[in-house]
Amino acid sequence: MQNTNTKPTAWYKQFWPWFLLVPLIVTVIVGMTMLTFSIQVFDGTVNDNYYKEGLAINQTLEKDHNATKLGMAADVKVDGVTGDVLVSLSGQLDSWPAELKLDFINPTRAAKDYGITLSQIADNHYRGQVEKAPLNLWYLDITTEGGNWRLKGSAEFPVEESFTLKAGQ
């Protein structure tokens, strides 16, 4: 004979409802966490005006070709302690510009890009100052205001010795 006095156990005390609900609950929690994280830590786009950049690429390439024709190169030294930036230009220029613009371009975050102005201290020697010495990989562009040449390259910071940016690299 069966015992008819047993009460059925409550649903939350059984194994199978929890076996089915736990993955769903975990998925919702992880999804909400990822959504919150993606909204709070939006890093923006690297270039939001890609069409205009695409149209201007020929002008940029022309500056690179001009630097190659002139045999341009720059020895760059960045002091990690003081933030001094020393640049020595070489090439076949008619006259050395009074100022250079050095752009530090972060490979992944456009918001971290910055530029400094280098002032001439001797014929082809320039000096500038960065507030905080860069760390890790940075792309570098050296140009003049309204100039027709550009030197570009990359460096892994901190760098103990000087490094060279050459046209056509």
Description of the structure:
Strand 6 and strand 7 form a beta hairpin. The chain folds into two domains: about 10-40; about 70-165, Immunoglobulin-like. Strands 7-6-3-4-5-2-1-8 form an eight-stranded antiparallel β-sheet. By secondary structure, the protein is α+β, with helices and mostly antiparallel strands. It has helices at about 15-40, 50-55, 55-70, and strands at about 75-80, 85-90, 100-105, 115-120, 125-130, 135-145, 150-155, 165. The relative contact order is 0.16.
Summarize the structure.
With 169 residues, the chain is an alpha+beta fold. Helices cover 27% and strands 31% of the residues. β3 and β4 (114-120) form a beta hairpin.
State the distance separating the first and last CA atoms: 92 Å
Helix content: 25-40%
How large is the share of residues in beta strands?
A: 25-35%
Biggest sheet character: 8 strands, antiparallel
Q: Unreliable runs, pLDDT <50, ≥5 residues?
A: none
Output the keywords.
single chain, 169 residues, alpha+beta, Immunoglobulin-like, 2 domains, eight-stranded antiparallel sheet, 8 strands, 27% helix
